[in-house]
Amino acid sequence: MNAATAEAPWVRRLLIGLALAFMALFLFVPLATVFHEALKKGLDVYLAAVVEPDALSAIRLTLLAAAVSVPLNLVFGLAAAWAIAKFEFRGKNLLLTLIDLPFSVSPVIAGLIFVLVFGLQGWFGAWLIEHDMKVIFAVPGIVLATVFVTCPFIARELIPLMQAQGIEQEEAARVLGASGWQMFRRVTLPNVKWALLYGVILCNARAMGEFGAVSVVSGHIRGQTNTMPLHIEIVYNEYQFAAAFAVASLLALLALVTLVLKFVVEQRMQGALRAHEEDTP
Question: Model pTM?
Fold first, then answer.
């Protein structure tokens, strides 16, 4: 073992113990508490809280927002990553900056921006009223806010990988007569499929758990514009703790499923990278 990276056994045990203690305190204990509180009054109370009309509406809206935002960001992420990694053009750095914008702007500020643009007193408020269209305090506003906050995840997973792979394979396909679509479908996409799936998983997890931006644009209308995080906040503030923890446990289950999928995809990505390095002379 390299002496520069070797540590005394007691140091390794101490670091591992500290890491496990940290995970237990900030991950396992809260997670166990959520499920304990959700089931504390029995399975009947738990199921009643989950199938309650407002809870079902929140679940449906959360799934709808994710079902719309993830495919949109999938198309945008693929297109943006392909353009940035494979081509040179004016405004490339500006596009990279815009992709990172949701990371640097608070979700609450993002929600306020949508209110200023699409609200009754906003830039397009009068036009929307004239055409009997509603964005803020309605489903379209929630979808827009979700798309905005989840925008960078897929693109940011693909860009570094595509840049590392270079353009040699695409150039070879072009020389052999492949069209742009054939080059993308048979060369570029297979090389990034695991990174793409990884980005989709992260994007979906953020879409379902988003609170700040959605809270601003939703209006908190029960049975209409409340997503699962908003529904949890409302029933918890009304001291309906069993109902709040029941819905929270569904989000926790989604998080656990996301972690498992994330681990599997990471293993596949590492295997693909090792195979690529072995094939590269």
Answer: 0.85
